[in-house]
Amino acid sequence: MESYNRRTPLFLATVFGLSLGIAGCSEQGSTEAAGEPQGKVVATLNGKSITESELNKYRDARADSSQPQDEEALLNELVTQELVYEDALQRGLDKDPKVLQELEQLRTRILVSAMVRKAMEDNPATDEQLRAEYDQLKDSLVISEYKASHILVEEKEQAEQLIAQLDDGADFAELAGEHSTGPTGKNGGDLGWINPQQMVPPFSQALQQMETGSYSKEPVNTRFGWHVIKLDESRQSEPPAFEDLKGQLAQMTQQRRVSEYIAALREKADISINGEAGEEKTAPLTAE
């Protein structure tokens, strides 16, 4: 089950991506040659009408495209698509076995995408359920933040000498202003409030082990040089508000429910996969 849960988001992303791209393929190539056109005609092609409705469908199908959606450019794209579609029919590609196989695969993907959407639409998450998800997660979203200062120098020996001066009562900010090679030196080494995840590991590890008001008793080495660190204050951050996370929570809940739906289908199905040597094996619970 663990493997299944990890890989399901990739499966979902593939399905949702296909549903957007496939919509454009499936709704076009169908202008009517006979009968009255339905709606305003925006172009004609070899006697066939292209309506405003068809143009709107084409626009919606490629709404996520990075290309500009100028009205005239869109219409020309649609005309070009219809021209190629007509030529494909005239050449008999709609009867080509390879093309028919691709069309069947396309049909399968459209149905899979539609079923996944239906599974989500049939069981939408309520605000109450999303708040319950939020209450379970919010404590894990709290992080420790630290208000710290540092003195950065190039040599370990110089850092050790600065620590010795601090031991003798020297002022940290004055030493930082005089000796630090970092950009914060002019501000007494003040880094402000920082998230340890934003710092390089040796620095953040040393910082999190310190007590408020103390400075590092040993120089801390990073790729930037040697640091003497002072921890001024620490605090716990506030978790993001429910409203700020509501969209992500809804998406996460939907993905989990689709995962559960797929797991239920697999649980009821009789699945076996033949290995390389023809050995029959039980299929793993994964969605690819």
UniProtKB/TrEMBL annotation:
The keyword Signal applies. This is peptidylprolyl isomerase. GO terms for molecular function: peptidyl-prolyl cis-trans isomerase activity. Keywords: Isomerase, Rotamase, Signal. Belongs to the PpiC/parvulin rotamase family. Residues 143-233 form the PpiC domain. It catalyses: [protein]-peptidylproline (omega=180) = [protein]-peptidylproline (omega=0). Its EC number is 5.2.1.8. It is an enzyme of class 5 (isomerase). It comes from Thiohalomonas denitrificans. The keyword Isomerase applies. It holds the Pfam family Rotamase. It comes from the Bacteria.
